[in-house]
Structure formats: C-alpha cells, structure tokens
C-alpha cells in the first residue's frame, strides 16, 4: 500500500501555497532591493540604479548606532528576566497540582494575547500612577511582560514531557533540589529554554507598540525606523537598517525552530 507521505499534492494547492509565500515575502525582498537604490527620496520601481553607498552612510550615522545599542541592551536584559520568571512559573505550574493552577497559567499568557496597545496603555498608566519616570528600565519592564510568555510556553511544554520518575530517582540517590535541577531537569529542558530565549530576544528587538508607551524620549531601532519613515531623510538608510532588523530577528527564530523540532525526545520519556 502506498504511503500518504509519498502522495503528491494537487497542482492547485502548490500554486496557492506559492502565491501565499510570495505575498508574505515579496515585500521583504523589496526592502532589500531598495537598500541598494540610487534614489534617496522616493521608492521607484524598478530602481534607477544600484549602489552600495547607503551601507557606508548608515555605518557613519551615530543615531543608528545609538538606537541599535539600546534595542540590543533592552532585548538582552528582557530575555534574561523572561528566562528566570518564565522557567519558575513553568516549573510551578507543571510540577504540582493546586487550586487555581489553570487560572494562573491563563494570567501568565494573557499579556501576549491582549492587543499591544492595551498592554502599552496599561503599563503607561501604572508607571504614571506610581510616579516612575520613563527610562531604559520602563522599556525593559514593558518588554518582559510578553517575553515571559514566550519562555513560559516553551518551558511548560517541555516540563510536562520530563518523566517524574527521573526526579524521584535523583532524590532517592541523595541529590538535593539544586542538584536535581542542574543534572536532571536542566539537560532535558535546556533546548526549550534556549529556543524560548531566542524567540523572546527577537520579539523584544523589533517591538514597537509597547515601546511607544514606555520609552519616553528614547528611541529603540524600530521606533527610529518609524520616525524616519514619517520624516524621511535618506530613505535607503531606513531600508539598510530594516535589513539588519530582518537578519537579527530571523536568525534566532530559525535557531529556535531547529532546537525545538525534536523536543519530544527527552530522557526518561518512555518510563
């Protein structure tokens, strides 16, 4: 009997899939193309000429480096906070049964389910009520609210696949809680945490809406790009920066995919 895996997809389905992919990715390819155009004030297609000078112009722009540095610092610290809080929440929810467990799980994932503008307004109102001035740390707090969710979702799924007999065996052999976590649990959930951290970093790096409400006068790279489009000067510079954003966010997502595609294979999973 022929396997379903070897059955060819209908031609119409292939065409529809190709059109869908083209619709999603053609705008990104146009961004790359306009980074090389010789026209600096408008988006002409086809470009009147191609040049590499905008990469040098972008390299010499201090405002680009300042925005890039701020985005990297915010994403890195937000990711660390998310890894700690998300892992602890996942361990508590998956490792024990208690009243209100599902409610707590819902509350943890709620920030990423809400529209970003709602989260932004709520955070801005809270900071204003507490008389906390908008700064580098308010951006981090805003980003951490949804980065925790990404880490939590990855960690809780992996925690639930780890066999409880492994933890029991470790305790029976005399290991304390920290040793059990370091030598038994962490090797089993490590790739899930790394993937969650990568996704959290990418999500934080290109976040716009929550940042708008929590940044004050500071500019992360996406905010800088938005303002450059509103008040354009040297438009191809914006496209060069957009290429950087695409690469910085694409690589962690790709890495997370490869790290988690075999996530069901954990030690003791069949015990």
TrEMBL record:
Subcellular location(s) of the protein: Cell inner membrane; Cell membrane
Residue ranges constituting the ABC transmembrane type-1 domain according to the UniProt record: 68-256
Domain of life: Bacteria
Membrane topology listed for this record: Multi-pass membrane protein
Pfam families for this protein: BPD_transp_1 (PF00528)
Chief location of this protein within or outside the cell: membrane
Record flagged with keyword Repressor: no
TM region positions: 12-36, 64-92, 104-122, 134-152, 240-259
Record InterPro entries: MetI-like, MetI-like_sf
PANTHER family linked to this entry: INNER MEMBRANE ABC TRANSPORTER PERMEASE PROTEIN YDCV
Similarity comment text for this entry: Belongs to the binding-protein-dependent transport system permease family.
Protein name, entry field: ABC transporter permease
């Amino acid at each position: 009997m022929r396997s379903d895996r070897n059955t060819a997809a209908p031609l119409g389905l292939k065409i529809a899939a190709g059109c869908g992919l083209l619709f999603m990715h053609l705008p990104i390819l146009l961004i790359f193309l306009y980074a090389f155009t010789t026209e600096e004030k408008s988006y002409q297609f086809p470009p009147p000429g191609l040049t590499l000078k905008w990469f040098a112009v972008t390299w010499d722009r201090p405002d680009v480096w300042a925005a890039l540095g701020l985005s990297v610092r915010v994403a890195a610290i937000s990711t660390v906070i998310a890894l700690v809080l998300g892992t602890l929440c996942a361990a508590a929810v998956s490792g024990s049964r208690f009243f209100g467990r599902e409610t707590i799980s819902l509350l943890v994932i709620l920030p990423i389910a809400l529209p970003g503008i709602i989260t932004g307004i709520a955070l801005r109102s809270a900071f204003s009520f507490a008389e906390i001035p908008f700064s580098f740390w308010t951006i981090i707090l805003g980003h951490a609210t949804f980065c925790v969710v990404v880490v939590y979702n990855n960690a809780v799924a992996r925690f639930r696949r780890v066999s409880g007999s492994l933890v029991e065996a470790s305790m029976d052999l005399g290991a304390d809680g920290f040793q059990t976590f370091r030598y038994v649990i962490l090797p089993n959930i490590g790739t899930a945490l790394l993937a969650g951290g990568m996704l959290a970093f990418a999500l934080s790096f290109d976040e716009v809406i929550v940042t708008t409400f929590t940044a004050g006068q500071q500019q992360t790279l996406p905010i800088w790009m938005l303002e450059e489009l509103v008040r354009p000067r040297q438009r191809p510079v914006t496209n060069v920066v957009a290429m950087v954003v695409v690469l910085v966010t694409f690589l962690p997502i790709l890495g997370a995919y490869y790290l988690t595609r075999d996530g069901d294979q954990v030690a003791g999973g069949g015990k």
